[in-house]
From TrEMBL:
Upper lineage: Bacteria, Bacillati, Actinomycetota, Actinomycetes, Cryptosporangiales
Keyword ATP-binding annotated: no
Residue ranges, annotated region (Disordered): 467-501
Annotated localization: Cell membrane
Assigned keywords, A-Z: Cell membrane, Membrane, Transferase, Transmembrane, Transmembrane helix
TM spans (from-to): 109-128, 148-169, 181-211, 217-245, 257-278, 335-354, 361-380, 400-422
Family: Belongs to the glycosyltransferase 87 family.
Protein name (Swiss-Prot/TrEMBL): Glycosyltransferase 87 family protein
Amino acid sequence: MTQQTTERTDVDIVIPSHSDRVVAGLSEAVGGPLGRHASLRKRFWTPLQVALLLTTLVFAFNWVQKSPCRDGAWENYDQYRNACYTDVLALYYAEELNKGYIPYLDHEVEYPVLTGIMMGVIGLPVHALVSSGAVDFLTPGNPNEGTVFYDLTALALAAFGLVTTWAVVRSRARRPWDGVIVALAPAVFVTATVNWDYLAIALTALAILAWSRQRPGWAGVFFGLATAAKFYPLLILGPLVLLCLRRRTTEARLSALVTVSSGVFTWLVINVPFAIMAPNGWSRFFRLSSERPIDWGTFWYIGTHIPVGRTADGKPDLGLPPFVWLGDHIPALNASAWVLYALCCIGIAALIMFAPRRPRLGAMAFLVVATFLLTNKVWSQQFVLWLVPLAVLARPKWRAILIWQACELAYFFSFYQILIRVSGGKSAVLPEAAFTLASIARWLSVAVLCGLVVREALRPELDVVRQDGVDDPEGGVLDETPPPPPRSPELEKHPVAAVDT
């Protein structure tokens, strides 16, 4: 007879070193995977605390990585050579916050309203303090308000990053360690404060958390706020509604109606005042979206930069003819991109309605956003941040995510090399073709992730999240996970049980 310690609270938590080969292999450096009967009840660091600490450290690293650009003295393409460029600092001046202009009312802003509000809430007080002479931020007589604006914005974005990690962990009761993937995704190190995207990302994560807790009204409010900051959260409502239709219960359909209704109402409350008071400033985002040409690194960019032969003077002849033509005809390009995305959405809808088992919300949310980026004419470097928490909700396996993130890093650094070249700099070390290859690798890595998610939707037994009887952790009213068996009175009194071996 021997005794082994077992605790009921530990059984419900998935240990990464037990369920993921990559983590198990890395754990050998610190003594190997956690013991099967190790007690976790009295641990000092909880998964949530670890994930939040790592998020804090990553944002601190990102601030250090961007620090060569914080003063705004960008000479000899330093912002590209050091890969530290950030829209936050550049647009403080481009959107004329340094002149005290109120976003939308005094100056047209290229972002949705809630992002512009965040810019103004931080930027206008900074400008007012500098203009009044109340505070000299850098040296007397020469305050650098752009630096302070970036630092305060970076601090706010770090707070939104913490909210994102917290929401992912809280929505995964059995897999809290998945939050560590959100915190440590390599692309976050270099893109976290390139733009204001973490505002929308945090609100989207809160929306999914609220839905998972069966709070459809609050889910809609957060979805409405998120869509008022960036467009992409709106896309997630499509899979949510279809999943509720497939569930075929009054509760699910009513919850979807409440979420969509409250989301639309919230978006209108934020947008309508600006649309009335400053219609030109408010609509600039929509006009710019329709007028923009092919952006760096997109599917359409790849098509216009693939070598197809040699010119008469021996130089590479770039671009497939249909893509080159679309690049010169923006309305046709817009239509083509939307048609491709519509086809992807039809495929996702068919998957939701006809898969052998109802797919998970997190997986379908990833698919609908990822395919939007795969087909869109714009794919800014920081858009990878949209996908990180969704990829973790869809498929929390380290190997595929790390491969994808490696491709994102390769794209990130090659992107700045191409910017040096097109700006006339002489310090680029990579050939121009390297950026096209990096763009292809990034596109394929996201497409492969989509393929893996689709495969696991068609073969639910391969879905690591659904192992051990779990149905849909983010599903809320959709979740059909059976309740845990009742505790025996004896186990309640004596959590340490004797086991014969």
